[in-house]
Amino acid sequence: MKIVVAIGGSILLEDYDCKKFKEYSEILKSLSYDHELFVVVGGGKPAREYINIVRNLGAGEAQCDDMGIDVTRINAKLLLTALGDSAYPKIPHNFQEAQEYSSHGKIIVMGGTEPAHSTDAVSAILAEFIQADKLINLTSVDGMYDKDPNKYDDAKLINEITAEEMLKVISNKDTKAGTYEFFDMAAIQMIKRSSLETTIANGHDPQNLIKIIKNEKIGTRIITD
Ligand code: UTP
After folding, report:
1. Cβ proximity of 109 and 83 under 8 Å
2. Which of 6, 23, 93, 222 could be 137's S-S partner, Cβ–Cβ 3.0 to 4.6 Å?
């Protein structure tokens, strides 16, 4: 299968060390024998910190986004280093480059592309562009809840949701640089219009990636039919 995997910066850089990069690189290498893999790496805390600094220096929102993009590419570079020969050594800056580099048969790793969205949207557009069979978004929570699990003890994980319903829930959330909430609207629109098979799940356990590819029911599946 052709699979796009988005890994949140908050996952890879949870402890600001190499542990998660190593764990993910081992799993990605083993999956790459059977699948064509495209990995999109997020910015996490370092992106938000740099965005805050540049915003306090007077930068506008698009410039803040641009700073965020640079940080996602630095994070992508760390994963590239961990993957070694298994990955194509250059980070694509757009979707055409991602497709072009993939002809070498190696794992493709990239960060952001242009301002005004998060890496969730990058992964969804990339999945459209390369006509991926699956889009997997690994984030810091188990999936989408019916209410904020940090505020409500009885919040329930939603196993399946339509892209339509998800758009309604997400539409009133913040979209400033560094503050894309749980999932980016632009991403859901892509998922909807191209009926992308999508799962959002917890990336703290890298084994979840294998489970999703084996079709085990974890996280939140976005239904598009
Ligand atoms: P992320 O996609 O990592 O945002 O990009 P995030 O929501 O903070 O995700 P986690 O924490 O990694 O899961 C960081 C910031 O970089 C800018 C946005 O400002 C985003 O909030 N960005 C990223 C873009 O403007 N365009 C892109 O293509 C990617």
Report:
1. yes
2. 6
DSSP 218: -
How does pLDDT run across 178-222, given as a tens digit for each residue? 655 678 889 999 999 999 999 999 999 999 999 999 999 999 999
pLDDT value for 175: 59
Give residue-wise pLDDT tens across range 93-139. Answer: 999 999 999 999 999 999 999 999 999 999 999 999 999 999 999 99
Q: Which two tokens stand for residue 17?
A: 């060390």
Domain that holds residue 38: 2-223
- Determine whether the shortest distance from the Cβ of 44 to ligand 1 is under 6 A: yes
Its pTM stands at 0.95
Could you tell me if the CB of 43 is within 6 A of ligand 1? yes
Q: What is the tally of structural domains in the chain?
A: 1
CATH number at residue 192: 3.40.1160.10
Nearest CA to ligand 1 atom 13: 8
